[in-house]
User: Fold this.
Amino acid sequence: MIVYYAVGGGLGHVTRARRVLDALRIDDAVIVASAKADERVTGRYPVVDSLDSLAPERIIVDAFPLGLRGELAGIDVPLDYVARLLRWDEYRRCVPHPLPHFGTMYLVEKVSHSVPCERVVELHLECGGHAAAAAARPPHSTYWLVVHSGPEDEVRELIAYAEELQRIENDKSRIVVVSQCGIGIDLIPASSLFANAKRIISAAGFNVMLETEPYRDKHHVVPMPRRFDDQFARAARRRYDFSSRICAAR
Assistant:
């Protein structure tokens, strides 16, 4: 059994888990995650909340090489590591245990840290929504799209940003909100609405930045502060493309 260890806040880790497993063509994996199971995100992969009942032959560790709190320190199972941007100094301050030796370090975006490993592989992930998902019918003929799973205060901050931008541009298009915190519509994948949106407003999490790659010309990025994820560094990479727009959230 292959286990993908995706314990972390929100749906981002499990969304990336499915993308990585699909890219590696692994069909029989189990995802360990703190987020609730949602087949729209995880598809055919079962989700459990801990390693306790599992006997994995290999663990693919997402984002945090020692787990979110160091819970993987000393584990006696072969490990691979999926690396995305990480506030490495802060993570190591909180999780100072010795790093394990990994078989493969999969790079899903450029990172500034490294771990002991036998090989490094750049892994290309599909930027669109899951292939099995049907395209959503646009809710309005002309609309701006605010996309953020939550929390509620951040979704409202993005809505306020969109409203202010509309005021500046004198644009009266309908603002459609996609979230998983009770505001707007709960649609997964939200990327099914990207093509027809006049503007897309989001934070700078890994998955939404990947999914909006084909829509840079209409994507407005508002990075949000996170304990370990470096959204500001990820957003800054778009700053050098003049067709992207970046607003500091704080």
Observations:
- The CA atoms of residues 28 and 169 lie 50 Å apart.
